[in-house]
Fold this protein.
Amino acid sequence: MPHTPPSPATDHPAPTTQAAAPPVELTLEERLAFINAAMTVRLDEAAVAYEVNTAHIPIEPVDLADVVTGPVDTGPAPLPELYPTPVAALLQRAHHRLLTGGWCKDALVDEDGARCMLGAIRIEARGNSGLEADAAAVLLDAIRRRFGADVDSVPSFNDAHGSGRIPIRMVDQAAGLADARSL
């Protein structure tokens, strides 16, 4: 039997198909990047739609002074009468003075009228040096109870702080201590 050459029209090599690659798991960063890109596109489309939908609305400029207002200055809050004893009441008034008038360091009173711990006690003692000394002693005791016996004096404690948060709190705690001692 004679050999016949293969016919190109009928003999085709079998097509080679490659198996689909398994899906690659994306990292969290890659998924977040895709989500970020999709959200950016959606936000851009929404911004354009907003501009188109509101372009026909006439607007007048608004003066912010008509809209933005500050709180009405009613002055400092009245001091509640919590402590019946003189030293505790003095320390309470000094605490209130520091809260409303401001706290300072390195001076009894600064150029703005803010006071240090001892300056607040002194002004609230109203010239009664015995009451002032008793209040300063209770304050120093309260400070030493909280921060140790290494504290030399009320002014050194006051001046060691960069803000009045802790010194003002200590005056309030000293008022409670004086009340507990019935001073």
Notes: Helices lie at 28-54, 64-67, 86-101, 117-125, 129-147, 154-159, 165-180.
